[in-house]
Amino acid sequence: MSIISNVTRAFKHENYRNFFFWQFISFTGTWIQGTAQSWLVYRLTGSAFFLGLVAFASSLPALVLSPLSGVIADQFKRRHILLTTQILCVTQGIILSALFFSGNINKWQILVLSIFLGIANSFDVTARQTFIPLLVTRNDLINAIALNSSMFNAARIIGPSLAGLLIAKYGEGICFILNVLSYLPFIIFLFFLNLKEQEVKEFKSSFIHLKEGLLFAWDTLPIRNLLFLLGAYSLWGMSFTTLMPIFSDQILHQGAKGLGILMGSSGIGAVIGALFLASRQKVLGIKKIIAFCTLTSSTCIFAFAFSKIYILSIILLAIIGFCSIIIISGSNTAMQAISPDHLRGRIVGLFSMTFMGIFPLGSLAVGFLAHLFGAPIAVSVGATICFIMGIYFYFKVPELTKKAKELLCTQENASTRIEYGV
What we know:
By secondary structure, this protein is mainly alpha-helical. Helix content is 82%, strand content 0%.
């Protein structure tokens, strides 16, 4: 099997190919709108604080709602959930566009719309992640999840770049319109998609379902430790990106143009990391790789905190981007691999809460430390905490692998153990 065919093997599934392509269009539009919205907020307020507040408001719902989103994903058809969330997202885009072209838009309206979008995304992310196993076979799941990560990060690179050109020439409004249009093909695809969905068991109370998922995650040692590691990394490792404008302007003296290159280098590293993950055919050894990437990323974040060499900082951010996507997507894949089908939504909901919901708290924490002690000290403290967590996880890997094998041996489908090779 050639390298290219190995990396893209999930594309042999027609539904996944279409899912991938139309998502890419939609995510590119999302990044275009996000960049334009940030610029609009800055243009209206001139306030770095309000910029941070809007970002915090859009991410906070994930902390509260992601566990519930997992219950919903296990109790309702995921295609229907995605259709609902996409319609809510496109509605938000239409309202934002209408307010902008009316000439009456203000910062508080943008804040409220950001919260609305954050609520929709809290349910969308979980439904989207748990939808992937319905589109591919089990032995292609790790490839499909990794390809999805590469697609998302490619959109993260292309979207803001297009937005910058469009804003400079036409203003923010065209970006909002393009975002609305980008949703439509994906909605049409979901509406006409024909596939066998997951079996929905008899409905119990949401509390009972949530408790069932929480108990399974806590009692399953590999999932519990992956969630702890991901939570620590989201809180103390990823949050340093909040201070990137300070590093670009005050420490590296590269201004706004340098900021774009710094963020782009991280995105490029993430795409390469996702493609590396996509090239793997088994989950075998993924926990050891996650541990290694946690240690490597923490070391690079610490070095970045005190770097005053622009090129060195770019290289470090590319390595950090590579390692981050391995930690995030690798953890997601490993947890889905060892979760039974009827609990997968709730486990992914906990993953989304840990990954997306804790990040805004980390942004507040690192921002507060930076205010007291300066950005380099704040970032280095976070890197040190992540490094300690990485060491702990590294020494737990043999035990976690043994427990994962035992769990898979008890599942009904005996072929799962062979396909995943955890």
